[in-house]
Amino acid sequence: MKQHSGGLGSFLNEVTQTADKGEGAQVAEQIVYIDIDELESNPRNFYGLRDVDALAGLIAVSHLVEPLTVSQKSDGKYMIISGHRRRAAVQKLLDEGDYTERKLPCIIKTRGKIKIEQEDGEIIEFDEDAVEMLNLIASNRGQREERTVDEKLQEVKYLETFAKAIYHQKNRGSRGRFRNFFAEEILNMSKSQLQRISAMEKLTDKVRTAIDDKTISESAALAMLNMTAEEQDACLEKIMSGEIRGTAQDIQKLSASKVVEEVEEDTLLKNADSDFENSSDESAVEENSKESELEEVTSETELVSEDVPAKSETEEEVETEHETGQSPKVTISLENETSQSTGFTIGELIDVPEQFEDPQKEAKEWFSQERLTLEEELYKRRLMAYEAIYRAAKRLNEEEENELKAAQWGIRASVARYNIEELKLQHEENGLVKS
Q1: CA 107 from centre of chain
Q2: H helices within 276-358, ranges in order?
Q3: What is the pLDDT of residue 206?
Q4: Band of the pLDDT at 333, cuts 50, 70, 90?
Q5: Degrees to nearest 5, angle at CA 383 with 433 and 408
Q6: Which of 7-16, 254-263, 274-283, 312-321 has the highest mean pLDDT?
Q7: 22 in a structural domain
Q8: How confident is the model at residue 67 (pLDDT cuts 50, 70, 90)?
Q9: Beta strands, E only, 110-205
């Protein structure tokens, strides 16, 4: 992986030397010893204070404190940019009487603006607070071996705007794709690592905390991405209770049905209404529309879609419409290729048989019409299933970090798309669309 030497810190040094920085944007640094009471926490710091006791023990033994990075405030005190844990550790030792040195070594960074000219002539300006935040992230990323999921997400959020300004900086020359540039040269990581971090934004707070606590691995958590928030937390509870193992494979078995992209409720209702647009029973339409749902896609890409719940456990059911006085309707439960029953209402017998000129001919015409109606319904369901499989493969192609696996998912998506077009073509050639 190609990486820019020094990553974010190197780019910060570069732009502060070459960009139009404006008034008061000097970057001179000096090391001074500042009393701990003069050092204030940065309100914009989103990094947590972890392992303070361990750090305090190390300082108590070695009496060595790495310099903090600070900026001077207008009231004469100093704002910490990097070194909150070091200050907390020393304060703990002072409070416990195990340390007497109150002054800490600090590197003072002068606050200033950065202006970066873009390829189109636009000037992107980062004010003092923004530059301070950039330095805060650069310092903490360089010194913290472990960071929480939320801290990584915050880093990506804050750094992306800066990365885009650098990416489009005038006279920078060829730089490849932005996501590669952002990952490799600003964050010093692979594009797939950046994708994994960004994807974790979809995880619940409980799941993120479980990653930080090492309760589950990142890979296992990412297997929950296609679950709803409630399903993610429920899955985590099963892992913590020992009901399932916290492996990506076990979680994938639970989440296999969720690899299809979420379908909005109004879309489901619209599809259900379309299935029943010829039904004369409006109450049945409303009930069945609410209950219609997109079923599961398994790891073997089997998908079942069921819109119409069966009205009874029998294969045939006769409904007499007393109010209209019409002949009974016959509801037949058919077995389709997904091995799931599909309710289907056939046409009414309006005329009495003795009035038919040719009962055999009428029966053939009736069967032909009902066949077309049923095949059109099955086509719609099969098309919906194929499209769901395609969307699932496409999504996994975009999210998979392994390039070979991602490429294979791309091939699978292409095959699924080809079958969708083939199904549509066959449907048109067979002339199954009802007039």
Answers
A1: 39
A2: 282-291
A3: 95
A4: very low
A5: 145
A6: 7-16
A7: yes
A8: very high
A9: 114-117, 123-126
**Strand positions, DSSP E, 61-200:** 68-72, 78-82, 103-109, 114-117, 123-126
Strand partners, 33: 105
171's torsion region: left (phi>0), alpha (psi -120 to 50) or beta? left
Whether residues 221 and 144 share a domain: the answer is: no
Residue 328 to residue 409: CA distance in whole angstroms: 50
My answer on whether 97 and 221 are in the same domain is no
| Domain match, 166 and 315 both | no
- As a residue count, the chain comes to 435
CB atoms within 10 A of CB 31: 9
Among candidate residues 361, 344, 352, 288, the one with its CA nearest the CA of residue 326: 352
Structural domain count, the chain: 3
For residue 270, the SS3 value is helix
Q: Which residues span the domain enclosing 303?
A: 295-430
For the stretch 278-326, pLDDT in tens is: 444 444 444 444 444 333 333 333 333 333 333 333 333 333 333 444 4
Give Dmax (Cα) for the chain.
112
Confidence of residue 30 (pLDDT cuts 50, 70, 90): confident
Residue 147 is classified by DSSP as -
Please tell me whether residue 216 adopts helix, strand or coil conformation. coil
Indicate whether 157 and 13 sit together in one domain.
yes
302 and 250 share one domain:
no
Report the interhelical angle of 403-430 vs 359-399 (nearest 10°): 160
Express as a percent the part of the chain with pLDDT over 70.
Answer: 69
- Strands 103-109 and 68-72, how do they pair? parallel
In angstroms, the CA 103 to CA 39 distance is 10
Which two structure tokens, joined as six digits, stand for 38?
């003069």
